[in-house]
Every structure is written in C-alpha cells, then in structure tokens.
Amino acid sequence: MQETKAQLRRRMRAARRGLSPYLQRRAATAVASRLSRSSPFRRARHIGIYWPMDGEVDVRGLVRQFPAKHFYLPVLPAAPRPQLRFRHWSGGTLNYRNRYRIPEPLRGPVQSPWRLDLVLVPLVAFDPAGGRLGMGAGFYDRTFAFKRRLPGAGPQMIGVAHQLQCVEQLPVDGWDIPLSAVVTEQQLYRCG
Ligand SMILES: Nc1nc2c(c(=O)[nH]1)N(C=O)[C@@H](CNc1ccc(C(=O)N[C@@H](CCC(=O)O)C(=O)O)cc1)CN2
Ligand SMILES: Nc1ncnc2c1ncn2[C@@H]1O[C@H](COP(=O)(O)OP(=O)(O)OP(=O)(O)O)[C@@H](O)[C@H]1O
C-alpha cells in the first residue's frame, strides 16, 4: 500500500536522525561546498538559512565562510500572522528557543521574504522535480505563497537535504511552492 505523508515523514525523520556524527559532518561539508560553487549562491547577497534540527544538514558554516553576505534565520509567526519572518544572524550564540526548541535571534533587522535573494529550505523529503515535504505546518508554503502568483518573483528556493531524503515522486498539493534546486552531499538537482 502507498505510504501516507505522515508515514513518509516519520520514516525520513528517523533516517536522517540516525546518521552518525561523522556522516553528518561529511554531508555538511559536501553540501556547503557544492552550494558555494553554485551560481544562485554566488550571486545572492541576502540569504535565508536555518538552524538545523532533527538530523537536518548543517549549513551554518557558510555564515563564517561568506562574511560579505547577509544571512537570516526564520522566526515563527506570532499568533495572527501566518508567515515566517527572517531575522539577520551573523553566526553568534542564540539564547532564545521557539516553541519547537529551535534557536531564533531576538533582535536584529528583519528582511521581508520577497527581498531575500535565496532561501535554503529545510525539508523532510524531496523529489527530483522540486517537490518538497516539510514538517507539516505549511510555514514555508504560506510565507512564499506569493511565488505561485508571480513565479519569477522573490527568492530562489533551494532545498537542502541528505541524499537519503530523495524519493521518486511526492504528491503535489495546490499550495506547494516548488524548489528551483535541491543540494545533497552527492548532487545538485536543477528542477523546473
Ligand atoms: N531547522 C528548521 N527550522 C525551521 C523549520 C524546519 O523545517 N527546519 N520549519 C519549517 O517549516 C519551521 C518550523 N516548523 C516546524 C514544524 C513542526 C515541528 C515539530 O517538531 N513538530 C513536532 C510536534 C509539534 C509540537 O511539538 O508541538 C513533531 O511532530 O515533531 C518543528 C518545526 C521554521 N524553522
Ligand atoms: N498558501 C497557503 N495558504 C493557506 N494554507 C496553507 C498554505 N500553504 C500551506 N497551507 C496549509 O499548511 C498545511 C501544511 O502543509 P504541508 O503539509 O504542505 O506543509 P509542509 O510544507 O510539509 O510544512 P513546512 O513548510 O512547515 O515545513 C496544509 O494543510 C495547508 O492547509
């Protein structure tokens, strides 16, 4: 029988969490190096990144490596707003954790999502066509929903993942924002 989204999420999260610290470090280095050689990254000045959780690839090393670029971390929306905000982060220690226990900067300039040049998107599973399965709260889909109406507008969305998170084909929902590329420790997928 076909695996449900919830089952696929559970399986992929367990798989990436199960990677040894050695494999995690190797993936982090390979992904950061492949990203930093790609033209969307080289062109970008304002970049959305993420604080890794639950076995996600750790690309925070890029912040130290590229001091001339500006990096921003997602900040969860306060009650009435459905969208993420992105707050400037220079690589320092963060003391505050949000309700999912993910660190967030408490101060610093906030950048509108559409003024970022590039967003490195965390994900649970992806397919080679740019389909993405996230944590299931729809944060990235809602925040970048404007890209469905204006496909060329706003940041390039590049998924970041371990190769083991690749599946043949994900079901597409109407609100899904397709990824323009996905980077893993093994390859760069150009999508769409
Ligand atoms: N590193 C990282 N940061 C991110 C995301 C992400 O996927 N990765 N997000 C991408 O959108 C947003 C956070 N989205 C999240 C959605 C659900 C859960 C979560 O852990 N859910 C629990 C149960 C909920 C609870 O504890 O209340 C779970 O099922 O594990 C975590 C983050 C913003 N920041
Ligand atoms: N543009 C949107 N407008 C309104 N609701 C949305 C929109 N995008 C997503 N949602 C809602 O968010 C819920 C979760 O979507 P989905 O399962 O695709 O999240 P996800 O991409 O896995 O999560 P995340 O982006 O948080 O990692 C959906 O049930 C949907 O109702």
TrEMBL record:
Keywords: ATP-binding, Ligase, Magnesium, Metal-binding, Nucleotide-binding. Its EC number is 6.3.3.2. Substrate binds at E56. It catalyses: (6S)-5-formyl-5,6,7,8-tetrahydrofolate + ATP = (6R)-5,10-methenyltetrahydrofolate + ADP + phosphate. The keyword Transcription does not apply. Pfam families: 5-FTHF_cyc-lig (PF01812). ATP binds at K5, A6, Q7, L8, R9, R132, L133, G134, M135, G136, A137, G138, F139, Y140. It comes from the Bacteria. Its cofactor is Mg(2+). NCBIfam families: MTHFS_bact. PANTHER family: 5-FORMYLTETRAHYDROFOLATE CYCLO-LIGASE, ATPASE INHIBITOR/5-FORMYLTETRAHYDROFOLATE CYCLO-LIGASE. Belongs to the 5-formyltetrahydrofolate cyclo-ligase family. This is 5-formyltetrahydrofolate cyclo-ligase.
